[in-house]
Write a structure and sequence with these properties.
It is a single chain. Helix content is 43%, strand content 14%. By secondary structure, it is of the alpha/beta class. The chain has a domain of 235 residues: Rossmann fold (3-Layer(aba) Sandwich). It has a six-stranded mixed beta sheet with strand order 3-4-14-9-10-13, with helices on both faces. Strand 9, helix 11 and strand 10 form a beta-alpha-beta unit. Helix 3 crosses helix 10, helix 16 packs across helix 17 and helix 16 packs across helix 18. The longest helix has 19 residues. The chain is globular. The model has no long low-confidence stretch (mean pLDDT 93). The chain binds pyridoxal-5'-phosphate (PLP). The site of pyridoxal-5'-phosphate (PLP) has 16 residues, from helix 11.
């Protein structure tokens, strides 16, 4: 399988190259040249596979430059009950991403947050850790991963890369802006290859530094700077797997359809659902949900994509969705405009200049219907009410991001065909967001046994002013 850019750069790169590359040279995002079609016979053969084997079958369609035996072993080492050990129902722990029915056969929660950092980002990031190690070992190279996080990405990346001899991680976070638990998760890591840098500013300041360093081609080459943010195709590929897994868990045979409801920020998670559907997975509907930062909900309602400025971005109680410019969205628009790179390049010229675009007078709406997309939105008071309602109706504590999705899912359950189950993707565990849970329920979420006491561990973090040269100097001295 070869890869090319949404903006037309025909590099025809292999998977292992784009894994280390991040963005395409023309500023676009990498996509596979074609989407593999999965036929009924193959679906039938996959239905009862354990998660790691299913991951191998799906990833081997996209990764053709790693020998099958090696890829199989990477998947087997990634998706173990030992790594994804935080399932809240005992029997399910071996299934990596268990489905919990809230209303039998109608409404389910697909638990994707059983990994080391209690957020769905582990599902892909753990695989990336093994892929990076494998490819760097083969090539005799090393990499310095530079990233910015507002909470979940940073810890998922650090837990995936910790202790890997050819990888160092430099993770920028906004000083004092993350939850106590999130801070403890990152800053308590004692591994020598992990460097936490807290910049005295906002998340966007951290993000700008990462961009500035990545745009310095000479520095980037000299210090082997790499990225693991959500535009990395490998993360999308890994996420496709749980849509198939969820489908098999929720249906009785492959004639049935399913719907998914996905809390969305950077459009990475739900884009993987779109790819799964394009591959032939019988998905009746993909429901996208935003919080108060509703750029994407607006697009799906009106056809107008208008990224907001940082000053217009709300700080909310579902912080991992506080995004006003969804980086993965470009991949979806590529499909929406009929896979034409020139059109995408034209539209993103507007976006990169701080503008907007309007697809409402194009075949947009018929394509959206064809792709099965609908959208909805949720606010702080919706989140609190939903957390309460789910707790009292089903006896389950959900996190604020999952609550956003659940609020909109309820609006759709009634109008779905009777035999189409709706799965809400659970993207984090409540334990990560104790403050909001307390506000909603008046009591604390349960912390998994192995993470209790995390907040009391010694922390290691370098506090720095948001200055590009200072950060470069820090990396140069340690990378
Ligand atoms: C990252 C994240 C999201 C948003 O996922 P995208 O792929 O950016 O759309 C939602 N919920 C949680 C808990 C997250 O960490």
């Amino acid at each position: 399988m070869k890869y090319f850019s949404t903006r037309g750069h025909a590099a025809r790169s292999e998977f292992c190259d784009i894994l280390l590359d991040g963005l395409a040279p023309d500023g676009g995002l990498y996509l596979p040249e074609s989407v593999p079609s999965i036929h009924r016979a193959e679906l039938d053969a996959w239905r009862h596979l354990p998660y790691a084997d299913l991951a191998f079958e799906i990833l081997s369609k996209f990764i053709t430059d790693i020998p099958a035996d090696d890829l199989r072993s990477i998947c087997a080492r990634t998706y173990t009950a030992d790594v994804f050990r935080h399932a809240r129902t005992g029997d399910d722990s071996a299934r990596i991403a268990p489905l919990r029915w809230l209303e039998a056969g109608k409404l389910g929660l697909l638990a994707l947050s059983n990994g080391p950092t209690l957020a769905f980002k582990d599902m892909a990031m753990q695989l990336l850790g093994h892929l990076f190690e494998y490819v760097l070992e083969k090539r005799g190279e090393t990499i310095n991963i530079l990233g910015a996080t507002s909470g979940d990405t940073g810890s998922a990346a650090e837990y995936a890369m910790r202790g890997k001899s050819r990888v160092k991680v430099f993770m920028l976070s906004p000083h004092g802006k993350m939850s106590t638990f999130q801070r403890a998760q990152m800053y308590s890591l004692a591994d020598e290859n992990i460097f936490n840098i807290a910049v005295t500013g906002m998340f966007d300041d951290a993000q700008d530094i990462v961009k500035a360093v990545s745009n310095d081609a000479a520095f980037k080459a000299r210090h082997c700077i790499g990225a693991v943010n959500s535009i990395n195709w490998a993360r999308v590929a890994a996420q496709i797997v749980y849509y198939f897994h969820g489908y098999f868990a929720a249906t009785s045979d492959n004639a049935q359809q399913v719907a998914f409801c996905v809390p969305t920020g950077n459009f990475g998670n739900i884009f993987a659902g779109h790819v799964a559907r394009s591959m032939g997975l019988p998905i009746e509907r993909l429901i996208l949900v935003t919080n108060e930062n509703d750029v994407l909900d607006e697009f799906f309602r009106t056809g107008v994509y208008r990224p907001r400025k940082t000053s217009e971005t709300h700080v909310t109680s579902s912080p991992s969705m506080d995004i006003s410019k969804a980086s993965n969205f470009e991949r979806f628009v590529f499909d929406l405009v009929g896979r034409d790179p020139a059109t995408v390049a034209g539209l993103w010229k507007e976006i990169d200049a701080g503008g907007a675009f309007d697809l409402s007078r194009t075949p947009f709406s018929s394509r959206l219907a064809e792709f099965g997309f609908v959208s909805g939105k949720s606010t702080h008071s919706d989140r609190l009410a939903t957390i309460r309602e789910v707790d009292s109706r089903y006896g389950v504590m959900i996190d604020p991001h999952t609550a956003d999705a659940m609020k909109v899912a309820w609006q759709h359950v009634a109008d779905l065909p009777a035999d189409v189950p709706l799965l809400v993707l659970e993207t984090a565990q409540a334990a990560k967001f104790a403050e909001t849970l307390r506000e909603a329920l008046g009591r604390d979420p349960e912390i998994p046994a192995d993470l209790q006491g995390l907040e009391a561990l010694p922390q290691r973090v370098e506090v720095m002013s948001p200055d590009v040269e200072t950060v470069k100097g820090f990396i140069a001295a340690r990378g």
